[in-house]
Amino acid sequence: MNLNTKDFLITVNLALFKVDEVKSASVKKLPQKELMVLLEKRKRAPYEDCWLFPYGFVHIDESLDQAVYRELKEKTSLENIYFEQLYTWGAVERDPTARVIATSYMAIAQKDYIKNQAIDERDDLKWFSVNKRLVAVNKPSDMQMVSRYIVSLYNREDDITISYQVIEDITADGFEKRSKYTYEPCSDSRELMAYDHIKILDYALDRIKNKVMYTNIAFGLIPEYFTLTELQQVYEIMLGKELTKPNFRRWISKKVEETQETKKAGAHRPPKLYRLKKSSIIEDQELF
Length: 288
Known about the structure:
Layout: E1 8-22, E2 32-41, E3 51-52, E4 55-57, H1 64-76, E5 82-89, E6 99-108, H2 111-114, H3 117-120, E7 125-141, E8 144-155, E9 160-173, E10 176-185, H4 197-214, H5 228-239, H6 245-252, E11 256-262, E12 272-276
Parallel strand pairs: 1-6
Antiparallel strand pairs: 1-2, 1-4, 2-3, 2-7, 5-6, 7-8, 8-9, 9-10, 11-12
């Protein structure tokens, strides 16, 4: 048995998300929102020129949380944003050069808060739009279901496309279900993700989708004051599906309150602005 801790390396990585707007070709349509994630381009082997989440090694005198906070500040100059631990990855083969155990974190922030020169001045840090969509479901038997997803990332500035096929194979095992995942780059993927970071991204997207159902995490991605249409768009991109306007507004009325403010909207009637009810922060309300 080898208990030499010098043979192990501990790292942290951070999936930082924001919501941004894409202007519509039609002036009559509102800008569409999309989920964005920050990736770093690796400059050395292994996986040279591949993309991964910003990461760093844990120092001997710091906790995991302290390490990820330090890396976030050093690489982006960001402070005081929401982040939470996702998962710890310890597969022996995840790094071909060393025994590396990595703990992943997820962070969210409003786009206006994230605007800073630290990110813009680094050519190895890029924002990518990201989405995960279900493309096929197959049930070979009553005891198995296989779902196929496509996870796509796109950077408009440099026209970079990263696309992976995700296969989720669920089987029944007694009273439980077992899930097995495989990841393969799509034929249209111009660049690749390093290590197991496509797996980490997939895990983070599922975490976001689940958390938006029972927490107020969506409000961390928008300004304090917002229209109900803007808020619905944020929920839709986090859930990966469209929501009916009446049902959404009926449910969200428990979480938000109308203000006296309105949003400038050109020649159109200015829509009312809302904000999160402080009382709803400590109340659990599942979506629909």
